[in-house]
Specification:
This protein is an all-beta fold and 488 residues long. It has one helix and 31 strands. Belongs to the glycosyl hydrolase 43 family.
């Protein structure tokens, strides 16, 4: 792993200038790593990512054990693998490992230790593990319970627990949970439960802080009701509830001056198919194959970021983490941001050299495909994927580029580019159009032909100087695999 990833970083360094030593890209982890549901936290000048762990070509969500990655807060292009921090078989309820570890969260307890909260996929209770360091080996600690020992989620009248989110203040830890599908009248919304200093015992019983769809009338949450993925952050004296809404592809937020009541819906921070954004296309046109979303916000060196995930491999169960810079305005609001390829970089990528196509932030076909909840897309749609099996350290690429399939990359600072190269394979015969807008005129074409190995094709194409998006649209017969593009 380390050899591959050092190569990846060094390759990007070749493209950088001046003080930029590495570049933050989307996805921010290697293309073979699938960590959705990320909760980012800064400990000792490093940001640590705690998420669930999908398996490439997995048949359900979250098949792998928990792992952790971290990066220095001043270099979000330098991610380090911290290893497996918790195995699914470490929970006493799961000795055979036949239950999956769903989305976790971590908080620092009053004793200074790190507490990992999670839910297994077939039980309604919240499990807790503990560690002395942010990314060491976590050991099972216990289950969240009432004072009489009854586990939260198992008392009559309890809602099943799901997607724990944490915020610790002094001796109190606020536990946020919930899963509320549209139309399900048995689920009322996001819950807040207050725990004592032992991190397990309930001091204040669950209350609902954001409504589910059947109970949202007059709440201000209409159309963006709580679905899952509650995550809490505090900015100044204001609590920010980040959550996934019933439309799934968006991460929304609500705010309050109290951690357990009074939350008001404020807006969307990011959508993993770029809906609602009208800065470069119609607001309700999807630009990526979206699905469920989960993540949160974090501040590093005065800059705020949103961590979220995208869907790959034509599957609901193969998700990768992405980052975007966000702005918290003086009035406390957070404008929605676009999905980009440059992610945390804070500036356009260098507009020369070779880039892998798995960095695409836009990917679509003439027959738009919205999330349907199914395992596989129809075979005509393009998808980011890899060869081999889960854990193979190899570079991802785009498969199934059929006629009209378009891959978009944002943004590049191009200067003096007169030649574009692409690497393609597959039973295809046609051209790749190169554009600077998804619906723009082609600047030029790169012809491609049938080949069963990665083959480089080149055309003289002038890219206008300045900051540009780049779009590659395939026109022709068959299906092309698209690995890299080079700007010269």
């Amino acid at each position: 792993m380390s050899i591959y990833y050092c190569y990846y970083i060094n390759k990007i360094e070749v493209l950088t200038v001046d003080k930029q030593k590495t570049q933050g890209l989307n996805p921010y982890l290697p293309s073979w790593e699938y960590i959705p549901d990320a909760e980012p936290y800064v400990f000792n000048d490093r940001v640590y990512i705690y998420g669930s762990h999908d398996r490439f070509n997995g048949h359900v969500f979250c098949l792998n054990d928990y792992v952790c990655w971290s990066a220095p807060v001043n270099n979000l292009g330098d991610w380090r693998y911290e290893g497996v921090i918790y195995k699914k078989t470490d929970d006493p309820l799961n000795p055979a490992g036949n239950m999956c570890l769903y989305a976790p969260d971590v908080t620092v307890g009053p004793d200074g230790r790190y507490y990992l909260y999670y839910v297994l996929d077939k039980v309604p209770v919240v499990s807790v593990a503990v560690c002395d360091t942010p990314a060491g080996k976590y050991e099972f600690y216990g289950y969240v319970h009432y004072a009489d020992g009854t586990r939260l989620g198992e008392r009559e009248g309890d809602q099943p627990q799901f997607d724990p989110g944490l915020l610790t203040e002094g001796d109190k830890t606020y536990l946020y949970t919930g899963f509320c599908a549209k139309g399900d009248k048995s689920r009322y919304g996001a819950m807040a439960t207050v725990l004592g200093p032992d991190m397990l015992t309930i001091l204040e019983e669950p209350v609902f802080i954001a409504p589910s769809e059947p109970y949202s009338a007059g709440s201000g949450f209409e159309g963006h009701e709580f679905f899952e993925a509650p995550s809490m952050r505090k900015i100044g004296d204001t609590y920010y509830l980040v959550y996934s809404s019933i439309v799934m592809h968006e991460l929304c937020y609500a705010t309050s001056k109290n951690p357990t009541k009074g939350f008001e819906y404020k807006g969307v921070i990011v959508s993993n198919n770029d809906l609602h954004i009208d800065t470069y296309k119609p607001a309700e046109k999807p630009m990526f194959y979206g699905g469920n979303n989960h993540g949160s916000i974090v501040e590093m060196e005065g800059q705020w970021y949103i961590f979220y995930h995208r869907h790959t491999n034509g599957s609901s169960f193969c998700r990768q983490g992405c980052i975007e810079r966000i702005e918290v305005l003086e009035d406390g609001t957070i404008p929605q941001v676009e999905m980009t390829s440059c992610g945390s970089n804070g500036a356009p990528l260098i507009g020369r050299g070779e880039y892998p196509t798995y960095l695409a932030c836009n990917l679509f076909h003439k027959d738009e495909a919205m999330y349907s909840g199914g395992l596989w897309m129809d075979s005509q749609f393009p998808k980011i994927t890899q060869d081999g099996k889960d854990g193979d350290e190899e570079t991802g690429y785009i498969a199934n580029m059929q006629d009209s399939a378009t891959a978009g990359f944002k943004y590049f600072d191009c200067q003096g580019i007169t030649k574009v190269k692409i690497k393609v394979r597959g039973y295809c015969k046609g051209v790749f159009e190169v554009k600077t807008a998804w619906d723009g005129e082609a600047l030029g074409e790169i012809p491609v032909d049938f080949t069963n190995v990665w083959t480089e094709y080149t055309s003289d194409i002038v890219i206008p100087d300045g900051v540009q998006a780049l779009y590659f649209t395939y026109r022709g017969d068959g299906s092309a695999g698209f690995a890299t593009f080079t700007l010269e």
